Amino acid sequence: MKVIMELGPKKIELRDIEMPEIAADEVLMKVRANGLCQNDVRDYTGDTLWTYPRIGGHEFSGEVVKIGTNVNPKRFQTGDHVVKYILPNCGECYYCKNGRENLCTEIYTSPTFKNENGVSGFRGMSEYLAVKSTDLFKYPKTTDFIEMAFTEPLGCVINSVERAHLKLGQDVLIIGGGVMGLLHVLVAKLQGVRVLVSEPNEHRRHLAQKLGADVVFNPMAGDAVEFVKEETGGSGADVVFNTTANPKIAIDAINFTAAGARRSCLVQCTPMSQLLLI
Ligand SMILES: [Zn+2]
Ligand SMILES: [Zn+2]
């Protein structure tokens, strides 16, 4: 089967490797769509701590083409459209036991990240994957494979918004209008809050507005902290979501936040998801 193998910074090759064998509790999943995340870009540029060779891609969807002998046929059949739970968390540590699997203390030593003698990676950029049936989520066949591939980033955003415990009518600031920022707009608006989006790119500001943002602004065009204060009756946002990976913006996120406001969230796509409580 074909895979996109990353051999080192800016060195990728289309390679033929052995088809994966499935165990009794696994299915063979044919990948039908795979999103490119900023983390994939970092793997490509070499701005990464993980080992090469690597098969990237963790935002993927696909189709079940074969089921293992112990997989319950009432749950999964060939032809099912599925996405996969991707974290290689241990299931044993404090975080795993408390529903914070993304903070599992063992994740970064797993072969998905560091595989000194083999291939690392989530492997969405391969034709087929052997997947435990317990890691699969089924979609209706009418859902587009490309839309399904947004499940993982959307899952991160739902986690982020749920942890912020938004209340009806609050002022919420979303920093950044990329994929994660725009998904935050969609999910936050469903909570009945007023959404402000800080984004320098005009096209992204326009998209944020189309998706329901109440106020969009360019943080480079003036004093962004002053602007947010003015827009929020002088107090600042009740909740700030920072969807950028720029550490300087984490400081701004604090300045944007109202006195007495409960929290600010710092979010990237899993497995880097973090929550900054202030
Ligand atoms: Zn991602
Ligand atoms: Zn763990």
UniProtKB/TrEMBL annotation:
Residues 180-262 form the Alcohol dehydrogenase-like C-terminal domain. One of its GO terms (molecular function) is zinc ion binding. Its cofactor is Zn(2+). InterPro entries: ADH-like_C (IPR013149), ADH-like_N (IPR013154), ADH_Zn_CS (IPR002328), GroES-like_sf (IPR011032), NAD(P)-bd_dom_sf (IPR036291), Zn_alcohol_dh (IPR050129). Pfam families: ADH_N, ADH_zinc_N. Belongs to the zinc-containing alcohol dehydrogenase family. This is Alcohol dehydrogenase.
